[in-house]
Specification:
This protein has one domain (about 50-245, about 270-325): NAD(P)-binding Rossmann-like Domain (Rossmann fold), CATH 3.40.50.720. The chain has 10 helices and 8 strands. It has helices at about 1-35, 60-70, 85-95, 110-125, 155-170, 170-175, 210-230, 255-265, 270-285, 310-325; strands spanning about 50-55, 75-80, 105, 130-135, 180-185, 235-240, 295, 300. Strand 5 (about 180-185), helix 7 (about 210-230) and strand 6 form a beta-alpha-beta unit. Helix 2 (about 60-70) runs parallel beside helix 3 and helix 7 (about 210-230) packs across helix 10 (about 310-325). The mean pLDDT is about 95. Bound molecules: NADP nicotinamide-adenine-dinucleotide phosphate (NAP).
C-alpha cells in the first residue's frame, strides 16, 4: 500500500515537472518567435504624401500592415476582393489611424481580367506609387483547381496575380522616383520546385499543399528577376518570410490541419508580429537601394531556395509568365 502511494506521488511529481518544463519551453519559444532585431517603434519613417498599395488588406498580416502605414500618414489603397469586408476594414483603419486618405480597391488576384480592371481604376486615382505590398495569398486549395481563365487558383493568386499587378504598376512606381515593392513569400518556398506547367494546372506531381510551396518559390524567383530588370529605375523589390503566424491562412484546410494550428496558437506569432518583416522592407532607411534579396522572419537577408538563385531559371519563368498574361501584347 505504502509502495503504491509513494509511486503515485512520484508519478504526479514527474508529471508536474514535465508540464512545467513544457510551459517554460513554450514561453521561451513564444518570446523567441516574437523577437526581432529591428524595432518598429524606433523607426521614424513618415509616409505623409506617399501612396502605398497593399493587397489582402482586409485580414491577418495585411490588415495590420495597412494600419501601420496609415498611422504613418500614407495614402493607403486597400486591395480586397470583397467590397463589404473591405469597407468595414477601411472604416476600422480610418478610425484607428485618423487617416482620411484611404481608398478601397477591388481586385481578385486570381483573375487577370480583375487585376487589369483594378489597375485601370487605380491609375485614374493615383499617378505615383511609392510602395506596393504583394501580400494577398491563399493556401490549402486542392491542386488543379482552375479559375475561369484556366489558371491554377493557388498559382494565380500567389504568383501570376502579383506578377501582372506589379508589371502593370511599373510606370507608376518609376514615376515616384524612389519606390519599393515587397513580395510576401514564405519559408515554405524551400519545399517547392519550379515547373511553369503548374500555372495552368498541369506539370509535375505535387505532394499535399505543395502547390502553395511552389507558388511561393515562383514569387521569390520573380523577385530576383524583377530586381535585375528594375536596376537604375529607383524601384527596388525584395521578398520575405513573415514567419508562422496565427491568421486565417489555413481556412481552406480541413479541421485535422486547422486544429493543431489552433492548439499551437499560443506559441505562434500574432499578425502584428508577422507584419514586422514586411514593415521593415517597406520602411527601414538602411534598405535604400537594396534589391532582389530574400529576408527571413527576423529581418535578416538569407539565401532563398536554389532555383530562386539561378538567373536562367528566373528568366525562363519570366518569359513563360509574360506569355501567359499577354503582358507583351496589351497595356
Ligand atoms: N500565416 C502564416 O503563417 C504565413 C506564413 C508564411 C507566409 N504567409 C503569407 O502571408 C500573406 C498574408 O497571409 P495571412 O497569414 O495574413 O492570411 P489571411 O489572413 O488569410 O490573409 C490573406 C489575404 O489574402 C487575400 N486573398 C486571398 N485570395 C485572394 C484573391 N484571389 N484576391 C484577392 N485577395 C485574396 C485574403 O482575402 P479574403 O479575406 O477575401 O480571402 C486575405 O485578405 C500570404 O501571402 C501568406 O501566404 C503567411
Amino acid at each position: 500500500m505504502f509502495l503504491w502511494a509513494s509511486r503515485s506521488i512520484l508519478a504526479w511529481w514527474a508529471l508536474s515537472v514535465i508540464l512545467i518544463l513544457i510551459l517554460v519551453l513554450g514561453l521561451c519559444i513564444r518570446l523567441w518567435q516574437r523577437s526581432c532585431p529591428w524595432d518598429l517603434q524606433l523607426c521614424s519613417t513618415n509616409l505623409a504624401g506617399k501612396t502605398a498599395v497593399v493587397t489582402g488588406a482586409n485580414s491577418g498580416i495585411g490588415k495590420f500592415v495597412s494600419q501601420e502605414l496609415a498611422c504613418r500618414g500614407a495614402r493607403v489603397i486597400l486591395v480586397c476582393r470583397n467590397r463589404e469586408q473591405g469597407e468595414q476594414v477601411l472604416a476600422e483603419i480610418q478610425a484607428a489611424s485618423g487617416n482620411n486618405h484611404l481608398l478601397l480597391g477591388l481586385a481578385d488576384l486570381s483573375s487577370l481580367a480583375s487585376i487589369r480592371s483594378f489597375v485601370r481604376w487605380l491609375l485614374q486615382e493615383v499617378s505615383e506609387i511609392h510602395l506596393l505590398i504583394n501580400n494577398a495569398g491563399v493556401c490549402g486549395i486542392p491542386e488543379k483547381t482552375l479559375t475561369p481563365e484556366g489558371l491554377d487558383v493557388t498559382f494565380a493568386t500567389n504568383y501570376v496575380g502579383p506578377f501582372l499587378l506589379t508589371n502593370l504598376l511599373r510606370g507608376a512606381l518609376e514615376r515616384a522616383g524612389s519606390a519599393r515593392v515587397v513580395n510576401v513569400s514564405s519559408y515554405r518556398q524551400n519545399y517547392g520546385y519550379i515547373d511553369e506547367e503548374h500555372l495552368t494546372g498541369a506539370g509535375g506531381p505535387l505532394a499535399f499543399n505543395q502547390n502553395y510551396d511552389c507558388s511561393k518559390l515562383l514569387l521569390t524567383t520573380f523577385t530576383g528577376e524583377l530586381a535585375r530588370r528594375l536596376q537604375g529605375t529607383g524601384v527596388t523589390v525584395n521578398s520575405l518570410n513573415p514567419g508562422v503566424i496565427y491568421t486565417s491562412i489555413m481556412r481552406n484546410l480541413s479541421w485535422q490541419y486547422r486544429f493543431p494550428f489552433w492548439l499551437l496558437s499560443f506559441f505562434l506569432k500574432a499578425p502584428k508580429h508577422g507584419a514586422v518583416p514586411i514593415l521593415y522592407l517597406s520602411l527601414a532607411q538602411e534598405l535604400d537601394g537594396i534589391s532582389g534579396k530574400y529576408f527571413n522572419s527576423s529581418c535578416i537577408v538569407t539565401l532563398p531556395a536554389k532555383p530562386a538563385q539561378d538567373p536562367r531559371v528566373a528568366q525562363r519563368l519570366w518569359d513563360a509568365t509574360v506569355r501567359l498574361t499577354n503582358l507583351d501584347k496589351m497595356d
